[in-house]
Design goal:
With 101 residues, this protein is an all-beta fold. The protein contains no helices and seven strands. Helix content is 0%, strand content 45%.
């Protein structure tokens, strides 16, 4: 009998969640906006963020690289990215031309 190596994630009998979180991250902006990142594939190169007012009104959205945000203001964000080799770097991006959802 020959043994086969099988990835448990490929096993059709593995348990699969029926529900997934719609939100994967929330960041409070320096300007009072609440930035919410929606769920995306883990290998997606860009992520959609939506900024809300404190009252819950959607203000704008941004398509950003896959990164971890440390600080976000009305026209900038600071965070860190990891490249395909796993090398991390601190980044700063200018936010402009916000799109209203």
């Amino acid at each position: 009998m020959k043994a086969r190596l099988v990835d448990p994630m490929l096993d059709p009998k593995r348990p699969v969640a029926e529900r997934y979180p719609a939100v994967t991250n929330i960041v409070m902006g320096k300007d009072g906006r609440i930035w919410v990142r929606g769920r995306a594939a883990t290998d997606a190169p860009r992520r959609r963020w939506i900024a809300f007012s404190r009252e819950g009104r959607a203000l704008c959205r941004a398509e950003l690289p896959a990164l971890e945000i440390y600080e976000i203001g009305s026209d900038y964000l600071l965070g860190h990215e990891r490249d395909s080799l796993g090398v991390e770097r601190v980044v700063a991006y200018r936010l402009r031309d916000a799109v209203t959802p």
